[in-house]
Design a protein that fits this description.
This protein is 83% helix and 0% strand. By secondary structure, the chain is an all-alpha fold. The chain has one domain. Bound molecules: protoporphyrin IX containing FE.
């Protein structure tokens, strides 16, 4: 079980590297107008999203393996899964925003993306407290 948890934490951490960096690229992308920088940022965002999606899947697979394989339960687990569902929706929405940037259709400001970038921070804080402290 400890090997599975170790890989779960490694893939969760790797997934979050992408969840923190991709919206930061969007912040910069929303401030540029020249085509060369637009193309470079689009390529960086595309490669990062393509890299972080399998990491997300592996984090979820090892988490489900822990949950279903070792009988973990409690209010903390339900609250955690609700937040994780929010994280999966956030990941999917980043993919949608990526396509809008690539098509030159972004209409949101860099300020909007700076707030958007804080969401994974808050979810990480809540999930780690839930799974380590198990407050309920
Ligand atoms: C389908 C999604 C997930 C499921 C079913 C799941 C399930 C679990 C389970 C059952 C444990 C073991 C808890 C224990 O040993 O007390 C665990 C550990 C952990 N999970 Fe997840 N998890 C999921 C996603 C995530 C995500 C997205 C994060 C980060 C935001 C996360 C962070 C952690 C951490 C930090 C631990 C280690 C806790 C410890 O060692 O005390 N998990 N997870």
């Amino acid at each position: 079980m400890l090997w599975i948890k170790a890989f779960h934490i490694v893939f969760v951490t790797s997934w979050f590297a992408g969840l923190f960096y991709l919206p930061r690229l969007f912040v910069n992308h929303a401030m540029v107008n020249d085509p060369a920088t637009h193309d470079r940022l689009s390529m960086m965002e595309y490669k990062l999203f393509r890299f972080m999606t399998p990491l997300a899947l592996l984090a979820l697979i090892f988490g489900l393996w822990l949950w279903l394989g070792y009988g973990f339960s409690g209010g903390w687990m339900h609250a955690k899964l609700t937040l994780v569902l929010g994280l999966v929706i956030y990941h999917w929405y980043c993919g949608k925003l990526l396509k809008e940037f690539q098509a030159g259709r972004n209409s949101r400001s860099h300020i909007w993306y700076r707030w958007f970038n804080e969401i994974p921070v808050l979810i990480l804080l809540a999930v780690v407290i839930l799974v380590v402290v198990k407050p309920f």
